Amino acid sequence: MKINRHIISLLVCSWITMVAFAKEVPILNYSINDDGQVLLEVASTVEHYYILKVRHEANGAYDLAVAMTMGAAGSTIISESLSAYPRSHYQVLEYEINAPADTDGDGIDDVTEWRAMPSQSPLNAAPILDVEDGVLALDQFSTFKSLSLTKDLVQWSEFLNGRGYVKYLITDFYTDPKVYFIDTETHRDHGDFARHIRTEYLGDNIKKGQVIYHPTSIANNGKIGTFAFNYSNGYGDDFKVVQRTMELLAANMPFLTNNLSYFITERNEVQYNEEIAIYDNSRVSVLLEADVYADIDYWGLHPSEGYGFFRQLSLEEVPGPKDIVLYESIPNSLPRVGGIITSVIQTPLSHVNLRAIQNNVPNAYIRDPLLVDSVAALLDNYIYFKVEQDDYTIRAATLEEVNQWFDDIRPKEEQQPPLNLYHDKILPLSEIQFEDFDGFGAKCTNVAEMGRFGFPEGTIPDGFGVPFYFYQSFMHYNNFFDDIKEMLADKAFQSDRLVREEQLKDLRKKIKKAELPKWMYEALGDMQDAFPAGTSIRCRSSTNNEDLPGFNGAGLYDSKTQHPHEGHIEKSIKQVYASLWNLRAFEERDFYRVDHFQASMGVLCHPNYKDEKANGVGVSIDPIYNTDNTFYLNSQVGEDLITNPEVNSIPEELLLDRTVVSSTDYVVIQRSDQLSNDSLILEGYLDQMRDFLTVIHDRFAKLYRAEGDPNFGMDIEYKVTVDDQLIIKQARPWVGYVLDDSEVWTNDENIQLSIFPNPTVSIATVECENCRFSNVELVNALGQPIPVPARLTQPNRATIDVSRLPQGIYWIIVTKDNGKDVFAQQLIRR
Questions:
Q1: pLDDT tens digits, 88-124
Q2: How far is CA 76 from the centre of its chain?
Q3: Do 60 and 132 touch, CB atoms closer than 8 A?
Q4: Which residues, 6+ apart, have CB-to-CB distance to 163 below 8 Å?
Q5: CA 464 to CA 429: how far, in whole Å?
Q6: Buried b (16+ CB within 10 A) or exposed e, 566-588
Q7: pLDDT the model gives residue 351
Q8: Spatial CA neighbour of 74 closest among 29, 33, 110, 114
Q9: Could you read off the pLDDT of 11-20 as tens digits, one per residue?
Q10: Could you give the CA distance from residue 294 to residue 367 in angstroms, rounded to a whole number?
């Protein structure tokens, strides 16, 4: 005969209820600790355990069990996770350990579940989970950390960015609640978890969201570091629902010290304000999204110093190299400037900060900088600006100081870009050699060289190179160099930036309207006719004033597309020529003392790609995080260029292993904000990208005579076409800021800090040859402390277990035994 398991469960529950006799015990003493939690003293024995129940109103029923503790001889203190109610709101029940009750009614007695935490909980009726799926109680902070996930970008829930969080799911919310704390690394979606354990996740009787840890926010207990729960996507609910959710979560988070709040996002702030009086008269504490960063008034993102003219700019204005700029919102691209201040929070991964690192200019966030008298008074004046991690210096400076500073950091001699006018014919890329860069430009010759690397057909653009000789001939033919000499000699041009901008604009108009010599017109027409009929031709700038020592120049000039209906290609060629004389390009060359008359424009011409699925930029080393044997990749969906992104566009950022050792040989630093899920733009192309970058790096290392140089890398631009083909459209030497492997951020030049293995999947050892440690800690890429214990194994050695942390970039922060000197090194969790 078959026996219904549900009937057996009910019979067991009934038996437990019959043999477990509850005895209410009087509260001997009532007090409140420094965290605002109640301390209730009751007479006790070691043969008993105690359940604490609460009621929200003085005349209500004790219907919610919030804590359990084992008895001690004589008396026992029992408390709960949240703030204290008055004495009359509490009831303490005593049970025999050998005849335990089943408080949550799940068929398993309290003592068995107490001893099995966190996989079980005496105050949670949810069925037992597999360890890889989650737990029923967050019994200690380490359990929270083991289940949590931290991401720099969480689409649709920006308030989770950079925060460790654990997803929760509560079923049968109004009837017989069951609370699940989800392993958020395993199940990043509530629906995936619910389907896996075969339970519901939709409907009014279901509540789901995240418990977030805010390490720098003040908790309800007045101390730093708080937990806050929210509902999915930051939406709110009625007060009664919020209160019940908080009580259920807190009852199964016994390690809390009155530091759990309800998180108020922009999406539920209106609903909260409508019920604010109810909240104010309850013990439901709240944490406003707007207040999360309220206590951060300053953040020194790139410590450095500089001089310049202090200007407040909009995103549309173009700063000069001697400007120290103040932005109210963060630009996505920025030319070389003297320093950067933003009044909105940046992260170390922001485009602005990466540019600051590459150019070694000071960069800081200052809250409401123009409300700071010492800052506002210096606007539109010459200043000295120094950024440190925890402080900044800003003072008035003289024009002489500014000029001296820039004279010191500028090249001492005028730079003569390579110019070989013996290359006087348009050539197919197949006939252009690497050493012809002085006639066609490095962009053109490097693309031509990659065409001989043996990649699949179509991987490298095929077309033609127009040499510098054509540009020089065109400029002389129209006497433009005489006009330029007169313009450069104009004192108004030299001193007034607005005059300079207008005169350069007039020059560009003249170049676009000018005639080509007849022989040049015909040669360009023949090249155009060599493409298949109906081809749109991409005309790309390829100058000789890029990749010079100390002068990058990338992205200064324009590329144009000539469509068949537009007629002769001269239009696009002259537009590219004219871009040599835009304001930003001129001032960059002027700052680096590049000879304007030697500066010349070559043009790389090949079929245009349209409607691409993705585009990106990669480097054949990791110049940002300084990881070994790794490629650095930025990608974005569609035609939103990484090199010139739309406002607020956030790209996908990956570190790709050069060597294949497992199925996930990459680390996701951040995901694209153009995707609505956790998929990757380059998914399906990573193996091919690894092969391409390996060949490109090794072949060009030989050509540039840089074999074995750890600082050498190739910077590439790529696309995924509408036909799903990965295209490498450009390669150039990486000449940006490169961290030295031995570089340690320290105030003692004798310190040598090493971390091994790095990257790691579990244990990392940090060691110093000639110092002693007093403290070792871990922080994430946003500078937020990660509560992972470090174990000192020797006075100069410690180990840190990062096996429970998500993949990403972290910093190990070490304090010397003098308690003052602090130094750091990056660690990557693979």
A1: 999 999 999 999 999 999 999 999 999 999 999 999 9
A2: 48
A3: no
A4: 150, 212, 213, 214, 784
A5: 5
A6: eeebbebbbbbbbbbbbbbbbbb
A7: 53
A8: 29
A9: 334 333 434 5
A10: 9
